[in-house]
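Predict the holo structure. Ligand: adenosine-5'-triphosphate.
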Amino acid sequence: MEEVKNKVIDELSNKDYEFGFTTDIEMELAPKGLNEDIVRFISEKKGEPQWMLDYRLKAYRHWLTLKMPKWGHLDIPKIDYQDLSYFAAPKNMPKYESLDEVDPELLDTFNKLGIPLEEQKRLTGIAVDAVFDSVSVKTTFQETLKELDIIFCSMSDAIKDHPDLVKKYIGSVVPYTDNYFASLNAAVFSDGSFCYIPKGARCPVELSTYFRINTAGTGQFERTLIIADEGAYVSYLEGCTAPQRDENQLHAAVVEIIAEKDAEVKYSTVQNWYPGDKDGKGGIYNFVTKRAICKGNGSKVSWTQVETGSAITWKYPSTILKGDDTIAEFYSVAVTNNHQQADTGSKMIHLGKNSKSTIVSKGISLGKSQNTYRGMVKFGKNAHNSRNHSQCDSLLMGDKCGAHTFPYIKVENNTGIVEHEATTSKIADDQLNYLKQRGLGEEQAVSLLVNGYAKEVLKQLPMEFAAEATKLLSISMEGSVG
Amino acid sequence: MELIKIRDLHVNIDNKEILKGFDLNINRGEVHAIMGPNGTGKSTLASALVGKPDYEVTKGEVIFKGKDLLEMEIEERALEGLFLAFQYPVEIPGVSMINFMKTVVDARREYRKEEPISPVDFLKLVKRSSELVGISDKMKGRAVNEGFSGGEKKKNEIFQMAMLQPDLAILDELDSGLDIDSLKQVAEAINKLRNENNAFLIITHYQRLLDYIVPDFVHIMNDGKIVKSGDKDLAKELESKGYDDIMGLN
Ligand SMILES: Nc1ncnc2c1ncn2[C@@H]1O[C@H](COP(=O)(O)OP(=O)(O)OP(=O)(O)O)[C@@H](O)[C@H]1O
Ligand SMILES: [Mg+2]
């Protein structure tokens, strides 16, 4: 029996990465290395105003004073920051007016990824901003958004066209001094999405960004800024893939979300960066800082993430509940397989009165992977009558993987309630046998059980994403057994 | 026509012999009942037939629809048309009944190289089966067996059987946990599903179930094998005399 299990687990390790193709397009690359000239080069390439360059330089100088954080339950090989290229753009294509102008190879790439930039996507009601390596390719659905005065564009465009908004909000939630990777990102960020929902507007479509790393030896540093003004609502989706490469690629993004009074932001991620091969060779290093602020009273932010990719994930989508009566949620499924390592979770910083937060984290570990939940819940002095409920479940498949939970709780106000529950389980043989007796093969049975296990999180995803995530989970599970 | 032939079946659990030379033939169209004292190996027989791991067949053969059943994986046996209504059905949290049934029905169709069932046909099948067994819409909307009462779990097994229409269904103590009305309804459902192509192996302790589902054969099992066989009257005799007497007559 053990032997059979091990065999199946080994088979799983041989599963290929579905998105491991590269695209052959002429790229313009920054020379390798990182210094002030490179920062200037990036800023100049993007035609940025002086204030943006100044911001980048300040960030870069600060980054030089920092050391890579070591507190994660991660074994991170040394990264040579001078051996990376910090800017890559497909040649001669900074911006497109229509899809006809886009390199067919590039469109083909997006089609392979299953992201039709064309009309099809309109039917499903998703506006897509696709970031390919460092440049934002095309934003669809602009007209519908324009009618509502909603701004959804690349960060580069926002810096040019909406400098006041960018100046006001960039770095307001994640300052460039925040941490090592946030600092690096502020210095060299390439592109990303910008989104502003004006007062009282409900964004009628899901806004969506797809990120893809293509070029070898480059880092990708997106910067995303989402602002929901008073009473506004937006649901935002983020998906990511990368080609299969032997060397590791660095990805250090920053996402900032601001919810003003009574505003609501839903942010959903399906992260499927290349995880490396079964021996742990290659794969993306995903060091991401995502943070939201419920700035105004009555505002709400909800994070949902399905994390199946990356060799190393270091990611804690967090929310500062500054306003009174604010609500923050974090729903996460993180799957690690082979040699993948994930250290992920959330911080909920309660500052306002009657603020409520929920954390639901489901870790699934297979192969020789390490899966860590790290969370922090803090009630500030003035956070009267606040509440947090955290639930962290781990599912282990096989006996060579690890699951770890590090919850931190800081309470400076005793009128609130913090609840923390944690479970660790294995897929029960009797469940597996029950499903098999009904005619399901090993893989199908496991995938059904895992999807059931992750249900609470998956049901938070918007419809079109949920189907994709379910499929992705099944793929990550292929051939596994507990 | 012969559906299953079990010859001299010996089964070990943890190196302990539980089935000790079990023989039985079942033809299509027949209903067989197996009765016997606790711990004699009735559930073990069911588990060994469906291919649960940890049930080690040390001797004997089982031919199902002309094929060597013991060579097949658990899911293959199911796909070939063997169904077990479990004595203790397990809960599958987070997996909705509908999603589960759709997956299972399509797995079967794929095995037969058929297209996945159309949503309309699927819903019709669900409606027909649930009405037959008396499954409420509320139950259909929930996760598989999660929070179901003991009786509801048993009904759910028969609902699944109605959905899948197996060639051979083994019902392990279907009557335990069902109230009188439910028992009647479930028994009626089984009678409606009975036809000349399928067969049932009913494991029970009580005559009551056999009043509703009248068996063609009744077998009494003791210490890992059948010790006495007869027609439906054997069960009645057993009810009045008890095992000691019946087996003493042997
Ligand atoms: N997993 C197991 N490990 C060890 N012994 C087992 C296991 N399963 C069953 N047995 C033993 O095998 C014997 C037969 O059990 P089985 O469940 O088949 O009996 P049964 O005839 O179905 O009884 P009941 O009428 O109580 O349901 C019993 O002595 C039981 O203790
Ligand atoms: Mg039994």
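Confidence is low (pLDDT under 50) at residues 1-14, 92-97, 118-126 of chain A. The two ends of chain A are 11 Å apart (CA to CA).
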